[in-house]
TrEMBL record:
This is Uncharacterized protein. It comes from the Eukaryota.
């Protein structure tokens, strides 16, 4: 976590946790979930992790 890039956007820094997650995490997670679903894999969690690591 410490090596993760930090935001420089002052609006996000002061945003409540839910708003911060909705603006930063949810879009990437949603697109990765769609990709895993379209792939039709049996290794859903592994494939999701691989896709998220690429982003």
């Amino acid at each position: 976590m410490a090596s993760a890039p930090q935001t420089s956007d002052p609006a996000l820094k002061s945003a409540p946790p839910r708003e911060f997650l909705n603006n930063t995490v949810v879009p990437q997670l949603a697109s990765a979930l769609v990709e895993v679903n379209n792939k039709g894999s049996r290794r859903v969690v592994s494939d999701l992790g691989e896709i998220l690591m690429k982003q």
